[in-house]
């Protein structure tokens, strides 16, 4: 079983990943500013309060872990202004991982980031850019920094996120010609992530996940 650092562990895909990883028997260090409030009880869970934008916090959180899951998000209200969280946090995480010798990174970005932007349908492009443009420009920078690293990375690009339990019935689209948008639950994204912790099929690849 692996010792995992989940960055952004208190909510969304990060929280679902913590639950799924614990259920699979992994040791989990749950990193978030509000980590103390994570409502889970498990002997393999370590709550680690810290700021993803603090190099010192990130370096401390990496001590002793074998792989990192990066799941960051910004509130809808912040999408109207400049967004730098994704790239700034990654610019701290990647060098810290390289320094610590932690090679495996699964980073959640989203369908429409990087070279998957060209796969957005014509009718979706204008509203997508209006609402998410600033965030996805920053996700582009995030992905670029990860690709330039020497890490064993996987870029995880889910479609439109929904609630609900994991079904295990989702598609892993790893060829650009197959990329498309669609719905997928946060729990199913977490299921994919946890399955990749001990696999190498998608190392140094970007995948789109849809149901």
Automatic annotation (TrEMBL):
> Which InterPro entries does the record associate with it?
NAD(P)-bd_dom, NAD(P)-bd_dom_sf, Polyketide_Oxido-like
Q: Cross-referenced Gene3D superfamilies, in alphabetical order?
A: NAD(P)-binding Rossmann-like Domain
Which named protein is this? NAD(P)-binding domain-containing protein
Which positions fall inside the NAD(P)-binding domain? 8-199
Report the source organism: Methylobacterium crusticola
